[in-house]
Write a structure and sequence with these properties.
2 copies of one chain form a homodimer. With 121 residues, chain A is mainly α. Chain A has a single domain (31-119), classed as Arc Repressor Mutant, subunit A (Orthogonal Bundle), CATH 1.10.10. In chain A, 55% of the residues lie in helices and 12% in strands. Chain A has helices at residues 16-29, 34-41, 48-54, 60-72, 94-97, 100-119; strands at 46-47, 76-81, 87-92. In chain A, a hairpin with a 5-residue loop joins strand 2 and strand 3 (87-92). At the A-B interface, helix 1, helix 2 and helix 6 of A face helix 1, helix 2, helix 5 and helix 6 of B. Chain A binds a DNA duplex (20 and 20 nucleotides) through helix 3 and helix 4.
Chain lengths: 121, 121
DNA sequence: CTGTATCCTCCGAGATACTG
DNA sequence: CAGTATCTCGGAGGATACAG
């Protein structure tokens, strides 16, 4: 559970709280599997095996690890239903779901940037 | 110059162009030094040595590598002034500067999320 | 079904020295 | 000043097997 530590704390124009906020956000977005996992949860609760099935090539080790990290970071909620056999469901927290606004900004910039690059050939 | 390849192309709810756009954006934000480098360019052109001085602990190797990558991705423009000795300046492209909108969204979410996490202790 | 435990590989990044 | 060339290493992530 290591913290990514961006090293521009000394740049005077960046208030420390802004830098921390960007750090927090990057923490939730970086790594190979976090975005794919979040994508599977957009339309509601899912069980471990469902998520695993929807993400080609992910291993249970990585899925477990990333879900635990997302839970610790308050992005997803894990619920144990003690049926037989037990089933476990993952879903976004309210705050976790709101990261969609960041993704929207990324989509918008990404599309515009690709267009801008194409326009100069 | 490897491309980060997010592996959720098969998730039907994500239009491929949106996935590509998020990929493009992540490409520009990930890694240890890209954000610090961009932060130094917010207020205008800078020379290699100036950027190096403003970012503690970065090595010329990494600065060179990241600047080249940002240039190839159309984020920064590199200008050679053939004075004696030559001086070289780096600055945002128009499209590169616009990534600030993404950072704004990240700051907003990051601050709100931190607050949300604190509120439930 | 919902994960852990081991072992292993590869690459991002650091250290250091050098070049035009 | 504006970089490049080597060498090295830790850690993210993969493969495979196993557990409750």
């Amino acid at each position: 559970m290591k913290e990514i530590q961006l090293d521009f704390n000394d740049i005077k124009e960046c208030p420390h709280s802004f830098v921390m906020a960007v750090n927090d956000t990057m923490n939730v977005l970086t790594g190979k599997w976090k975005l794919p996992i979040m994508a599977t949860l957009i339309f509601g609760k899912k069980r471990f095996k469902e998520i695993e099935r929807e993400i080609p090539r992910i291993t249970p080790r990585m899925l477990s690890k990333e879900l635990r990290e997302l839970e610790l970071n308050g992005i997803v909620k894990r619920t144990v239903h003690d049926s037989i056999p037990v089933s476990i469901e993952y879903e976004f927290t309210t705050s976790g779901r709101a990261i969609k606004h960041v993704l929207d900004a990324m989509v918008e910039w990404g599309l515009e940037h690709r267009q801008a690059v194409l326009n100069r050939h």
